[in-house]
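pasting for ref
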Amino acid sequence: MELERPTTPETPLARLTRWVLILGALYSLYLVLHPFTPLARAEIPILDIVQLQRSTHVLFLLLGGYLVSFYLPRKRTLGAWIYALFTLVPLYNFLFPSVPGVSLPWEAKAVGLLYWGVAVLPALLPGLKRPADLLAVLLALFPTLYQLRYFEELVYRAVLPQPWDMAMSFGLIMLVLGLVYRLLGPVMPVLVLFFFSYNLYANLFPGAFKGSPQGIDLLLGKTFNETEAGIYGLITGVSAKYLVYFTLLSGMIGALGLGRVVANYALALVGKHPATPGRVTGVASVFMGMFSGSGAADTQFVAALTKPLYERAGYERLIAAGLVATAGTIALITPPVLGSIAFIMVEILQIPLLKVIVMTIGPALLYLTTVLAFNEFYARKAGLKAVAPELGMSRRRYLLRYGFIFLPILLIVAMLYLGYEVRTAASLALVLFIVLTYLDPTLRPRGVGPVLEGLAEGFRTLLPIGTAVTAANLIFAMMVISGLPSKFSQLLQQVSGESLLLATLITAVFSLVLGMGVPPTATYVLTSALTAPAIIALAKENGIPESAAIFATHMFLFYYAVLADVTPPVALSAYAASSVFGTNPLQTGVYAARVALSKYLVGFFFLLSYSGTALLIVPVLENSPPAEAWAMILERFLSVAAGIIYLSASGAGYTRRPLRRWEAWTLGLLAVMLFVPYGPLNLLAFLLGLPFFFK
């Protein structure tokens, strides 16, 4: 999501906003240096205690978020009423706790009510939004200061919190949900409030979902005081430990003007051809994904870059928008930056990021293949004219001149391989980008203004992502307290029986539907908590080794959470592309799904057999001898790539000639047979499909 910049940067409030964002960025960067500075011996809590580092990180998110929100439009929707109604459940229980022995003084209740009003009332009364946003900035300071003052005591009273512990916890939850509502809409806050309400009234739910209700004191105490299961748990830690450094990297690239260089590099790699616009789209999306990890933002950038090429070549607008929307989502699975899901996976599975990077290489390449293959067949069928990018110099010269732009990315990969922390690698890459830019006479900016702008813009980009991740941590905490994941997992196993295919199908649909309303991060957190145990158990029953089953399951959930970003009717990448091409967002989403239909099928075959996990490389390398593993990897990639080409030709209705309807359907069926991880069937399907590619 792109947040609007202040329209009047000369005002004191706009300057305050900018400096809060810069300070949030500098705080995160300093944490990388801190162990090597004299202050490391001073034992300063907000610099040395992980829990307080996360608390301070969330404070900067709230301060920056509400200041940025001050400039966002005011509106009231139906979702606002639903959100406000859901907040009444925790509010009532906070004001009138039904837990024996728990009584809050009126001052604590008044403070909790104030936090609720600031966070919720502007959703119903938009005229209150601006003063409420400014008051929220002030109120955001108190939970952090309270935790800093009483941190050691809070840890020991998570189950039996004091009244002011409860007031600060309630206020913090309301502020986080209020900011998520302002930046991302009502769906995710309502989801958090649903799980909160489930804990309070689990005894009222039917059947397998009936449980024991929890007291408001326990929920608020564990949320605020618990070290890893509360609001400052490991998922929030992902924002503080990983995401901020990569959004700063992305913001710095934009502020230094390097985005255009990266885009032109993609243009230089593609020659003059009717399919040039689509080729540039695919390559540029991968390049931008290496630096960004944001699907909608990359879609917007690549759409603006390639729109003139599409118009000159004569592409249909909806086809062009669909290609760009689909390709832009590659950013979320493009190594090494990836999206926030990858880092949550690292924390949940406790594995090195390098393993996740290797596992995403296959899906990213196959995803790119779907875009390029459809583009080639469409360009031939439409008889488009050849176009070439304009660089102002020869392609070869441009490639040699600006190849250094990828050195920071190579630095990240090398440092991860050598075992350095992710944030250390990303921070050094950021510094290297700045140094390279100032050393190059054609790129050198004036003064340090662009560097400060890059820090501010990077932290601004983090705001919706970081607050969504913090809200996802709340969901995770509520589910852990309720025991709901085990109940849902048991239900999934009962419904699917022993069928791994049925379980993955149900989960894929659940993930896509859920992803229509919440960001990919929250989609992954929910689906991994609710469905992963059942799928892993079924995968092991189907002969997949345990480690391979775990990796394949989480990559499957990762992959389908990403697809939600481009799945109609609510597809953020489709909206980003349609805003540039002037197309209907819903139709753009439909065309985006049609352009790369293969992307919806490939994910299933990570899981259906052990050989299917070869698409992820790591599972088979860890469980089979190298020669056998590499043979399996090569066979699966060749089969699936051939299937993608067949399905793309079927969708475009063209190979080397137009296809009749029955021919297109037949080729599509053969494509699915190529996806199935069974060698003889793959060979048969490949041979039967070859005649369609001859005149």
